[in-house]
Amino acid sequence: MFTLHGIEHRYDGAVALVVPTWEALRGERWLLAGPSGSGKSTLLGVLAGLLRPTSGTVTVGDQDLSQRSGPELDRWRGRHVGYVPQRLHLVASLSVLENLLLAPYLAGASIERPAAESLLARVGVGELAARLPETLSQGQAQRVAIARAVINRPLLLLADEPTAALDDAHAAQAIALLTEQADAVGATLVVASHDARISGAFPHTYVLPGS
Prior knowledge:
CATH architecture: 3-Layer(aba) Sandwich
Strand content: 15-25%
Helix content: 25-40%
Strand order of the largest sheet: 6-7-8-3-9
Number of helices: 6
Radius of gyration: 17 Å
Structural class: alpha/beta
Number of strands: 9
Oligomer: single chain
Largest sheet: 5 strands, parallel
């Protein structure tokens, strides 16, 4: 489903990420592990086509990301990648439902309002569709962000430290929700985390060494 080969990324000349090779198949669940500062967030950005590595090749599905222009990557990412960042970035002026509908709109895809409402219900926040993000708890906002990430039925679902600052029960719920939604759309799931509590949920692990 994706292949990385010979990846190196530098910031201001300093090496921030090195991935000799990594391959994952469609529908697999991967934990991206490593200490803080090892490049986990950078690697998610490379996989999502948000960052172009200094060297190496990134292939996701049948797309060689190095051969795509910025606008082409934006369109491709909108349709094929779901991303749950550490900071959820829900649009404050839009309702929960409007935040969800924004993702297919920006990707040039079409989705019926009832389908979006059904997805919100499946992740347990259907009754919050008319609410603004500022009125949500952290757990509720996280569920909305996960729904937004999967609404376009992505090939690749990425999450960056989704259990940070969560207690044990809510951490387990967050990972269960991510895996359930990835399975529902057949996406390859990659979760970047150094949280030892969640390792058992992932059959596969890729470990980045410390800097």
